[in-house]
Amino acid sequence: MIPPGFAGRVTLTIPEATVTRRAGRPGELAGLGPIDPGLARDLAAAAARNPRSTWCVTVTDRHGHAIGHGCARPAPATDRRHRAKPDQASVPGGPDPPGRARFSLTPTDQPGPPGGYGTWRFCTGIPGQRDLLIDIGPIPTESCDHRHQANGHDPGVTLRHLAQVRHATCTGPGCRRPSARCDFEHNTPYEAGGRTCLCNGNPKCRHDHRLKQDPRWNAEQLPTGEVRWTTPSGRQYVTEPTRYPI
Fold it and tell me: Quick check: pTM over 0.90?
């Protein structure tokens, strides 16, 4: 049984159609793998009852690769729609228990970041909770406008987050270490003039970061976000961006 609002740090990925109950596609729990739709919804509902939960939306292409992303912020307090109202699903005597989460994701009339996918309104459906707004910006796949480039060696919070969204795990061949526990590694070293940008950086665990620096190995980040490794023997392995459940 899922507790009524838990505290913890876990990444739960659920297709929008599943969380809004329009489909029954599986979700994914970081570090564990696929989970059935019912459990995914229950976990999302429990997280919705904790006001400290963070909500993000990732847009994918037909292969499941991330091409857009945004994280939620509270809607303005002056917005009359900013709090969910009780309905048949949440009032006593209705078909669902009081306070049950009923998620919705709807477009707004705001344009959102340039080149992105607009601004969306996310509602948990829990009475008294403020609605959230999500500006979905682009994640470059071929060309990069360097909008999140950092001036120094270390990436900013947004740049690091987007790199972790594109690659949920280390980009080393066969490595499954979560990218949140990896270094932001420059494809062309910063000291050699490489940008601190999404087009020149990807997550690598400390082991693979050091391996890439070995002159016998070569790792090249391609414009698509893929990382092509060449071993000392000449064999090549390509690590593609994460395929999200769609």
Answer: no
